[in-house]
């Protein structure tokens, strides 16, 4: 839904000082630019500790949350000091944080706008090519983690090639899917329903019924909360967890076999997800 969010925030006025007459997209980008996608604001991976957890990371239902956060270029604290305390009241918001409630209005416009766009669209405004770009960047993140283990990986014959190939194939299928989508007859309800089902159920194609190793509640192969900080999310969590602190694991052979297994699981899942977007006879 990244494209949907970006396009929507370009239409909403920014409530920030110094951005009068400019869009929410612009102030968001200036305060928190994406590390992976040049020219776009950052959209964080969903972690845990919120109501979306079961929908997204267990059931594979596309989810998101919109909130106002700090200016990462200026603010030093990770959150405001009274977060989750008894002092987090309406009065403190009214007197200190958002006296005019203009930030609250912006969040409401984003959330309401998303609901409206999703409800009114004939074809769901999901872009599978965004997913393909994200998968490519996530593979790069895993690759950067493995850089310090290259010699050991060669000994244990561990490679990310299979995962890269599956992501490349997913990208090609996603491009073809959207090429065909441009030709859809929007006046044919059966055809529209078929395309929307493919878009809607793509997220569920990344669900593994067995769940993640040691964390069966979490079944999404691409996204999960960080095992060591549930409020943040990680990509390819099975691989990430297998690589975490791997140098200090007693049985190195077993540890690297687990890494290989998780790479295979991720590659298989990405390939299977791509299959849901292919043209059917």
UniProtKB/TrEMBL annotation:
Tell me the cofactors it needs.
Answer: Zn(2+)
Any GO molecular function: metal ion binding
Family matches, as InterPro entries = Peptidase_M28B, TFR-like_dimer_dom, TFR-like_dimer_dom_sf
What are its GO cellular component terms?
plasma membrane
Sorted UniProt keywords = Glycoprotein, Hydrolase, Metal-binding, Metalloprotease, Protease, Zinc
Q: Does the keyword Zinc apply?
A: yes
Q: Using the record's annotation, list all stretches that form the Transferrin receptor-like dimerisation domain.
A: 158-278
GO terms (BP aspect): proteolysis
The entry's family comment says: Belongs to the peptidase M28 family. M28B subfamily.
Q: What is this protein called?
A: Transferrin receptor-like dimerisation domain-containing protein
Name the species this protein comes from. Answer: Micrurus spixii (Amazon coral snake)
């Amino acid at each position: 839904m990244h494209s949907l969010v970006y396009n929507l925030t370009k239409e909403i006025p920014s409530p920030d000082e110094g951005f009068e007459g400019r869009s929410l997209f612009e102030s968001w980008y200036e305060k928190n630019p994406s590390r992976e996608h040049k020219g776009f604001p950052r959209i964080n991976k969903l972690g845990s500790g919120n109501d979306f957890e079961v929908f997204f990371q267990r059931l594979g239902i596309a989810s998101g949350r919109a909130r106002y956060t700090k200016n990462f270029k200026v603010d030093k604290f990770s959150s405001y000091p009274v977060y989750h305390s008894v002092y987090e009241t309406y009065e403190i918001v009214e007197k200190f944080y958002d006296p005019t409630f203009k930030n609250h209005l912006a969040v409401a416009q984003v959330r309401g706008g998303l609901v409206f766009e999703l409800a009114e669209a004939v074809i769901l405004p999901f872009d599978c090519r965004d997913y393909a770009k994200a998968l490519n960047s996530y593979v790069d993140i895993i690759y950067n983690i493995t850089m310090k283990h290259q010699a050991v990986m060669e000994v244990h014959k561990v490679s990310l090639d299979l995962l890269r190939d599956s992501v490349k194939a997913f990208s090609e299928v996603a491009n073809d899917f959207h090429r065909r989508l441009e030709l859809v007859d929007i006046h044919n309800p059966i055809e529209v329903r078929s395309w929307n089902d493919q878009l809607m159920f793509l997220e569920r194609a990344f669900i593994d019924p067995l769940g993640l190793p040691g964390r069966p509640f979490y079944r999404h192969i691409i996204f999960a909360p960080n095992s060591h900080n549930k409020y943040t999310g990680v990509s390819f969590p099975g691989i990430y967890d297998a690589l975490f602190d791997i140098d200090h694991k007693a049985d190195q052979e077993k540890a690297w076999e687990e890494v290989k297994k998780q790479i295979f699981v991720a590659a298989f899942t990405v390939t299977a997800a791509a299959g849901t977007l292919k043209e059917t006879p």
